[in-house]
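Take a look at my tokenised protein here and describe the backbone shape.
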Amino acid sequence: MNTLLESSLPGIPLVARGKVRDVYAIGSDKLLLIATDRISAFDCVLGSPIPDKGRVLTQLSLFWFEFLKDVVPNHLITAEVREYPAELQPFADQLEGRSMLVRRAEMVQIECVARGYLSGSGWKEYRKDGTVCGIALPAGLLESDRLPEPIYTPAIKAQTGHDENVSFEVAASMAAPGVVERLRGLTLAIYSKASDYARTRGIILADTKFEFGFIGGTLTLGDEVLTPDSSRFWPAGLYRPGGAQPSFDKQFVRDYLETLSWNKQPPAPALPDEVVEKTAQKYREAFEKITGKSL
């Protein structure tokens, strides 16, 4: 079992190093996305990698890109390393299973969130104001309740690096006319198809976020899609509204960090082996339940 905390591709231009992904430029019109095994919590990247996490994120995204291709085009060219340009072949050991060669897109600076259940920041706002991103909801809902219908709640990156929920009207003012309406339609169509499928696999897709960009004038799905890093997956058999739900994500990491006196500022503490392994198991389980395959 190999882990990758940080990629190293000498001679290949590094465009960005995010919390999880390393992004390289391949010519003027393509990017290489590498999903490392880094994990973040409370906006800090931890020093302990989670084995197989990058492979889970990549392989799940590939599954969903294929599943959703009739709903929306995506930016994928290939994830077969042998099909990559010659200059990438010396790095095959770093790239295998955790990378994608994609078309470069002009990304829309609005994150597109679909919510089917009341959780997270939506639950906090609802308790205070009876709304989620300004959308009024019926009174008396419980934490984790299913919403009367899925809602689209856009978000933007604030200066602090956190995602900041905004109203539809604010999002619309940040994009060309009609773009946010199209984003809402695509987001809800994707969520509907994906959540229906997830239910057949015993999983509730509580909420998720997508990123879109324009490639040659076509609105295109990009980045990762429907992974434990970008979605709340709940086991349907354990679903009980009225509180937080067990989930297939990094909740074990957050729960452990909350027991420490750490001030949630870098440097982040290392994780115990049992927390690392339990988190890795949750990511693998999400992949296997959704795809029906072993990683």
